[in-house]
Design a protein that fits this description.
heterodimer; A: 405 residues; alpha/beta; Aspartate Aminotransferase, domain 1; Aspartate Aminotransferase, domain 2; 2 domains; 17 strands; globular; B: 139 residues; mainly alpha; Sufe protein. Chain: A; two-stranded antiparallel sheet; 7 helices
């Protein structure tokens, strides 16, 4: 099964650094793309390229149908309605859109209110809210992370109180692999009338999502981490929530009527899609989700767990290794530090052996600070990860440690 | 002579048969680097544009620049040591008149990944800036 799956990813056949087979374990940064996604993009340009929602000619109608078809595919994937899906550039833009539109809509009412995030957020789910606080006089509150890498739920429920205007929480940590109980967090936020937002960038890669069950107002993710192209992302909003929001960017396509006296805006989702959208990106994302839905996701998750277990056990044979949030690493994201060795050095030497991992702060500096480390080495799994990848990783890891020891 | 030192280092690196030996040599160079004075481990002497932390502290004595340098990552520290072999204890004029394509002269892009070469460029720029500053002070 795994060989058949891997064969759908042309890039996995390649070699790096003069003849070393590529071992790609940087999937939390971006996943590789299956042939069907590459074909969908290429076919669009070969047969149907035109602008969507403009002009009534044959190609324009095809492009529009493909673009809106992709929206339906995403809606189905999240168990949401078609008009709840806004295409963005990625999770980062989705979160910026939300922060800016929430400010434009609720403006002065945000002064003295609080915005709640957690210590394990990606910078994309910190900085837009921090700036919103600076502009409006709202207060940024941070939910603590426990020593074992979990969200401190007691602290969370304390922190989300009557003053709370927005709660924005990551579903699965890009550093620790922690999966948060976002249902409980969202329920608490909604009970107090706050807006509940979930960053699902890592979670959607491994799990099915039902936004109604989560109970959030908005769920965001990036396409490129989900086997789809760069430059496309999703903001899935509860329709009534979106319908109240002021627009983010303005221009073509998002308007109802324009005159020099007064412009009125279209309804969601077009209200939030100013200008020509990333049509090929949306089509690629639709193709990626269709590809995913043809897989046995339970079986893949089980395999990812077992590979992560192999990784953790192999790493722990070296007593200098410390895995951050170890109990969550089995979800497929393993972050570690080695006593006396800089993660950066390890990354360099592993790369020389063909093993692609990420080293650095993973756009989560507050979390690094929380654990008292400057940078970690992160290995992250995807559907096509194999036992051979894990073995090659462990082999390259111990060789690199020896060279640096 | 700067160009002579570069040639010697290039010869040494070229003679090494594979990546393991080359990185081994660079790591060994890093381990041999003189202790960095703790009082200069400050934001002011940090080199911008490197993925790991690099410190570079210059002193001018009798027209010669003496550098202290360090990094918290071992391979980068090795590259720092390599730069010190080339540029330490030179006059500002020597540094400014030398070619600034060290990475190419040492074929570092073939020997090491391009990312390493980028960090090297940041360090070289900083060395040249100090040399330029000292040359202006003197004038």
């Amino acid at each position: 099964m795994i060989q058949e799956l891997r064969s759908q990813f042309p890039i996995l056949q390649r070699y790096v650094h003069g003849g070393k087979p590529l071992v790609y374990l940087d999937n939390a940064a971006t996943t590789q793309k299956p042939q069907s996604v590459i074909d969908a993009i290429s076919n669009f340009y070969t047969t149907s390229n035109a602008n969507a929602h403009r002009g009534g000619h044959a190609l324009g109608a095809e492009a529009t149908a493909l673009y809106e078809g992709a929206r339906s595919t995403v809606a189905e994937f999240l168990h949401a309605q078609h008009d709840s899906i806004v295409f963005t550039r990625g999770a980062t833009e989705s979160l910026n859109l939300l922060a800016v539109s929430i400010e434009r809509t609720y403006g002065a009412r945000l002064a003295g209110k609080s915005i709640v995030v957690s210590e394990m957020e990606h910078h994309a789910n910190i900085v837009p809210w921090q700036l919103l606080c600076e502009r409006t006089g709202a207060d940024l509150r941070v939910i603590r992370v426990t020593d074992d890498g979990s969200l401190d739920m007691e602290h969370a429920l304390e922190h989300i109180d009557e003053s709370c205007a927005v709660v924005s929480i990551v579903h699965m940590s890009n550093v620790l692999g922690t999966i948060n109980d976002v249902q409980t967090v969202c329920a608490r936020a909604k009970e107090l009338g706050a807006i509940a937002i979930v960053d699902g960038s890592q979670y959607v890669v491994h799990h099915d999502v039902n936004v109604a069950e989560i109970g959030c107002d908005a769920y965001v993710f990036s396409g490129h981490k989900l086997y789809a192209p760069f430059g496309i992302g999703v903001l899935c909003g509860r329709y009534e929530f979106l319908a109240e929001l002021e627009p983010y960017q303005t221009g073509g396509a998002m308007i109802d009527r324009v005159s020099f006296e007064k412009t009125t805006y279209g309804e969601p989702p077009v209200r939030f899609e100013a200008g020509t959208p990333n049509i090929e990106g949306a089509i690629g994302l639709g193709a990626a989700i269709k590809w995913l839905s043809g897989l046995d996701r339970d079986a893949i998750r089980t395999k990812e767990h077992s590979l992560a277990k192999n990784l953790v056990e192999g790493l722990e044979s070296d007593s200098r290794v410390r895995i951050l949030g170890k109990r969550h690493a089995l979800n497929g994201i393993v972050s570690l530090v080695v006593d006396g060795i800089h993660a950066h050095d390890l990354g360099v030497l592993m790369d020389e052996q063909g093993v692609a991992v990420r080293t650095g702060h993973h756009c989560a500096m507050p979390l690094m600070q929380r654990f008292g480390v400057g940078s970690t080495l992160r290995a992250s799994l995807a559907a096509y990860s194999s036992r051979e990848d894990v073995d090659a990783f462990l082999h390259a890891f111990s060789k690199s440690c020896r060279m640096l020891g | 002579m700067i160009s002579q030192t570069i040639e010697e280092i290039a010869k040494t690196l070229d003679a090494l048969p594979d990546w393991e030996e080359r990185y081994g040599a660079i790591i060994a160079m890093g381990k041999g680097l003189a202790q960095y004075p703790e009082e200069h481990r400050t934001e002011q002497f940090k080199v911008k544009g490197c993925q790991s932390q690099v410190w570079l502290h210059p002193t001018l004595r009798n027209g010669t620049i003496y550098f202290d340098a360090d990094s918290d990552a071992l391979i980068v520290k090795g590259l720092v040591a390599l730069l010190m072999k080339v540029y330490n204890e030179r006059t500002p004029a020597e540094i400014l008149n030398s070619k600034d394509d060290l990475a190419q002269q040492l074929s570092l892009e073939q020997h090491l990944s391009p990312n390493r070469a980028n960090g090297l460029a940041s360090m070289m720029k900083q060395i040249r800036l100090y040399a330029l500053a000292y040359s202006l002070v003197k004038a």
